[in-house]
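Human: My hope is that you can spare some time for a protein that puzzles me. I am handing you a single protein, as its sequence and its fold in token form. Could you go through the record with me and say what the backbone is doing? Take your time, and here it is.
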Amino acid sequence: MPGLPDPSASAAVLIGTSAYRNLPQLPAVENNTSDLAAVLRDATVWGLPEARCRVIRDPSTPQALLDPVYELGSETTDTLLVYYCGHGLRDSDTADLYLALTDSRDGAGHTATAYRYVRSALRSSVARRKIVILDCCFSGRATGMLADTEELAAQAVIDGAYVLTASPRDHFALAPEGEPHTAFTGELLHVLRNGIQDAPETLDLETLYRELASRLLSKNRPRPQRSQENDVGRLPLVRNRARATTTTAAGPVIDIEVQTAMMATGLHLARLLRSVGRNRDALPILRMILQARVPEAEGDSVAVHLELAELLTESGQDKEAIETLEAAFRQTHKRFGPEALAVCRRLAELLQAAGNHRQACDVLRHALDSLDVSTARDAELSP
């Protein structure tokens, strides 16, 4: 669909801190990040590749929170989205916003991550559009940091940035007891999943903001805030599923056999492209195949994971190659066969090369245990 950000050149970092040692627990946060990742990866909404939609759970250090933003930001040329959900804190000596970590303490900014560091990470990205979504108390301070005073705005400006927050500057966000999501993210998920009636086929950030504000105010919940640079909120972001469902299904309804055939055909085409040196053209095909996620075609899916990982390794993208193989490993860890063994072997090699020796050993140990179980089962079945 024209105008939408290119999923293969975009990325999302979804950060959620639900478990704390010194602050109240926020169990809904884990649902927030998992469900938001699923929606953003949905091809009928945005279609981000799994490797380009990273979920960071319960970061305990600033590096754990910020490093993924820097890493994906350096690889993203279209749209970079950073989402944080957890406790937002105020320091006792400043008016700054701090994002809580697992060991953070109330009123002690040095135990959390200052929002200004997230802003710096975004400014360093080459992405043409940057989006920040903050679902935390006092998150409105992030929008204020873009326009409170001329001097502060000059320091805080992020070209092409849009900041959307769950609450005004000095208000608390809500995590209603008994609800699966926080108030703000629950409404955001509803809008993304169901779309907006009488809106265009694509939704921009300003349209999303207005719908969120209307829904939250109707329930007497905190009004979200937003701030933007260069009118970036007017650019299309996701598909409007309400428009899709008025005439056709939100996504293509394709028979499982057809989907499986498409996967096999796509894999064959990608291999042909690689054989003639067109690796760049093969990459999006393999990524698109994996987005289809056909449960009945797990064996073929593992073959696609292996092919994509090999191609990523050849192009120097070892980190994404490891993530791709880890996804395949999760698919195969309860069954065993030649492809599962190939996944374990290749994943262990990449982990070893990256210096993750302990993880490499764990993967190889799993492969040996699975081989022992498989051998024993074959012996029992043999006459």
About this structure: Residues 357-381 form the longest helix (25 residues). The CA atoms of residues 81 and 131 lie 5 Å apart. The radius of gyration is 22 Å. The chain has 14 helices and eleven strands.
